[in-house]
Amino acid sequence: MTPSQKKIVVTLGFCGLVSAADNWFVSPALPAIAQTLAIAPAAATIILTAYLTPYGLLQPVCGAIGDAVGRVRLLCIIVAGLAASTVLCAAAPTLEALVAARIVTGCFAAGIISVNQSLVGSVVSEEDRQGAVGLLMGITFTGQGLSAGLGGLICDLVGWRAAFICFGVLGAAAWLGVRRMRYLDEMDGAGTVNAAGASVSAIDTPGAGVSAAGTGAVGSAEREPFRPAAFLRHAAQILFGPGRAIYFVAFTTGIIFLGVYGFMGTFLAERCGLSSTQAGLLMMFYGLACLAGGSISGRIGEARGQRGVIAVGETSGVIATALLAASTITGSWMPALPAAACLGLGYILVQPTLVSFSMDIDPSHTGLCTGLIGLGVFAGGGIGSSLGSIAIAGGGYFALWTIAGVALVAQAIAGARFLPRK
Asked: What percent of the chain has pLDDT over 70?
């Protein structure tokens, strides 16, 4: 990638970082929120589900709208909405009001990752795509881990309401960064970006639908208007077509990886006796592992292929569940520290690779294809939060980690058989 392309990836990554941080700083803050609103900590997990469910369900819609109206234009709108609604969460007087505000925030944030992924695919070459998407998602989910530490620290110092305000301010900073990239909508998918940052005219023939970057993104002159009926038909064709195994693995990835991560903050507080700040600092290792994994995923792909990248990620996830089980048995936080790192590494190797797979399903509608990955992962994460509550109620945290580990092994076996060979 050229320096200018890297700058675009980093700017988009920061937008994704804010959207991930906006949700996951809530995990270590759940005990404090529950105490303020006079509810049980387990009941407070509905706050995670309230954000993740629309965040996942609306991703393909936002991806398709971005394909139709321009990705940067849509990104400006949804990042601004994310910033404003996050600040609104700080003023919620009851659990019901906070849940409603988180639903609104999740709706605005829904398209950030899918639009980012398809936009990156339109400004880098196919050869650079694995590494670019890995870097993008590494930065994005660094926010998931780092926000746990920052959110926990802010909660302990000045309260969880101040934490929402702080992350709203970060959203405003991300919006300013996107505004500076408006020139991309003029060549969105119809050219690439040179080292000086200027757009380069497409080398394609009109109507070919193939960008100079070689990824098959649609240029502004070729965009189709968004039609709900056509969207639903096309989404169903992609979701249940030859690439359905990719979306099934995305769904189970969300249930397992995000479901496990969502309970770590409460687990560290209840089982290991850590404060919000201590739990958040430990969970920061998730974000650091995401950043490291995103930067090396391209090299792992070159050595082992994309299925190999996913296999390494799933193995890392199984190790994480085993370490969390050890932490449950001993009551010590020490095994949970490498568990957080293994969980972050595993997730960041699996999810971006599935995104890269999806871009080849229909290169002229990459926003929709990547958005359907988000649908699977983040709706799966919302379902994982609900299933995790049931598992904890039935057998405690040890049962949750055991079920997650067995499910990851099953996912690895299914993926090795049905995912494309690349």
From this structure: 88
The Cα 163–Cα 87 span in angstroms is 9
pLDDT tens for residues 67-84?
788 888 889 999 999 999
Name the nearest CA neighbour of 265 among 165, 156, 190.
156
State pTM to two decimals. 0.74
CB 27 within 8 A of CB 270: no
Amino acid 406: pLDDT = 96
Contact 359, 370 (CB under 8 A): yes
CB atoms within 10 A of CB 236: 10
Of the candidates 275, 215, 265, 246, the residue with the CA atom closest to the CA atom of residue 420: 246
If DSSP states are collapsed to H, E and C, what string results for 353-365?
A: HHHHHHCCCCHHH
Other residues' Cβ atoms within 10 Å of the Cβ of residue 289: 27
Nearest one of 285, 408, 407 to 335, comparing CA atoms: 285
The Cα–Cα gap between 387 and 284 comes to 24
pLDDT tops 90 at residue 403: yes
* 222 DSSP assignment: G
Q: Give residues with Cβ within 8 angstroms of 157, minimum separation 6.
A: none
Token output for 42: 């387990």
Query: Which CB contacts under 8 angstroms, 24+ apart, belong to 302-306?
Result: 305/421, 305/422, 306/130, 306/353, 306/356, 306/357, 306/419, 306/420, 306/422
Could you tell me the CA-to-CA distances from 191 to 124, 207, 208, 242 in Å, in that order?
A: 10, 13, 13, 29
Locate 257 and state its tokens: 């990886």
Helix (H, G, I), strand (E, B) or coil at 216: coil
Average pLDDT over residues 161-184: 88
Residue 299: both structure tokens together: 């090299």
Listing DSSP states for 39-97 in one string gives --TTGGGHHHHHHHHHHHHTHHHHHHHHHHH-HHHHHHHHHHHHHHHHHHHTT--SHHH
| Residue 413 neighbours by CB under 8 Å, 6+ apart | none
Identify the bridge partners of residue 200 per DSSP, sorted by sequence position. 192
Q: Return d(Cα 25, Cα 149) in angstroms, integer.
A: 8
**Extended beta strands in 145-185, E state:** none
61 in Cβ contact with 108 (< 8 Å): no
User: pLDDT tens, 284-318?
Assistant: 888 788 888 887 887 888 888 888 999 999 999 99
152/352 Cα distance (integer angstroms): 27
Under 8 Å between Cβ of 216 and 366 = yes
